[in-house]
Amino acid sequence: MKPILEKISFELPTALRTLKYRQRCFNMPWHFHPEYELTLITEGYGKRFIGDHVEPFAAGDLVLIGSGVPHAWINDSKFHEPDSTLNVGALVVQFSAALLNTEMLSMHEFTNIRRLLQKSARGIKLLLPARDEVANRLESMHKTQGIRRFSILMETLDYIEHKNNYHLLSATTNSYPSTPETNEKLQRVTRYLVNNYHRPLSLEEIAREANMNVSAFCRFFKTHTRKTFSQYLNDLRIGYACKLLQDENLSISQICYECGFNNLSYFNRQFKRVTQQTPREYRSAFRFQ
Known about the structure:
- By secondary structure, the chain is an alpha+beta fold.
- The chain folds into 2 domains: 4-168, Sandwich (Jelly Rolls), CATH 2.60.120.280; 180-288, Homeodomain-like (Arc Repressor Mutant, subunit A, Orthogonal Bundle).
- 33% of the residues are buried.
- α8 (229-247) crosses α10 and α8 (229-247) crosses α11 (279-288).
- The strands form 3 sheets. It has a 6-stranded antiparallel β-sheet with strand order 2-9-4-7-10-11, with helices on one face. Strands 6-5-8 form a 3-stranded antiparallel β-sheet, with helices on one face.
- It has helices at 102-105, 111-119, 130-143, 146-163, 180-196, 203-209, 214-225, 229-247, 252-258, 264-275, 279-288, and strands at 4-5, 16-23, 31-32, 36-43, 46-50, 53-57, 62-65, 71-75, 88-95, 124-126, 166-168.
- β5 (46-50) and β6 (53-57) form a beta hairpin.
C-alpha cells in the first residue's frame, strides 16, 4: 500500500515540535514523512502498522519511527460505532533530520544517537521499564521550549540506545512501490484485509479484489509486502487474538474462531510463531503483569 507523504508544518522555523491531542479516533491514513517521530499512545487501542510489521497497540504504547518509514494506527471497530464514547489520545514528538547533520552524528558523543536513528528505519518499540522513563521525558519535552527541549530530546535518544530496552519491529527497512497503479491496488487490498481478516478469506476472494488471477496476485503481494498473503493475514489475526486474550473473557477456542481461524491446532502454531508463546502462556503472562 503506497503511503501518503505527510507534509509537517512547523509553526515557527524550528526542527522540533511536540503535539498532544485527544479525539474520537485516529484518522491519519497509511503515511510517511521525512521527520523522525516518537509517539506515545495515551488512550485508545487497535492495530499499529510500521513498515511490514503489524501488532496491537493500547495506552502506554511508545514507538520511535524513522525518517520515511510508512506507518498508521487503526482503531478497533468499536471506536466507529455511532454510540461509541471511546476516544484516542497521543503525545507526539517530531524532529527533522536536519536537527542532526552528518558531521554532528560522526562525533563520538553522538554514537548512541547515530546507532538508534539507523535502527529506527525498522521502527522501534520501547519496553518496560525504559518505556515509562521515556514517556516522562516526552511529557517534560512537551512542557518546555527552546534549547531545553532540544537538550531533553538528545538525552532521551541517547538514553534509549544506552538502555537497549526495545524491540525492532519491521523485518526490513522502509520500502514501498512508486507507480500509481501499484499504490492504488495495494491500498485497496490492504484496506480489504484490515476490514475482513476476522472472517474466512480465500486467495480467490482477495485476488478478485485486486483484479488479478491468484498466481499473479501471490507474486505481486510477496514482492511489495515481503510476506506471503497467508503470513500477512495470519499476522493480522494473531494481533487481534493478543487483544482478545488481554481484554475479553473468552476461551482460547472461542478466540481462535473469532479471529478467523478454523482449526485450533493451526491457530496455536501460528500464535507461537508470532509471539514465541502459546495463547495460554501469553494470557498468563499478561495477567501476571
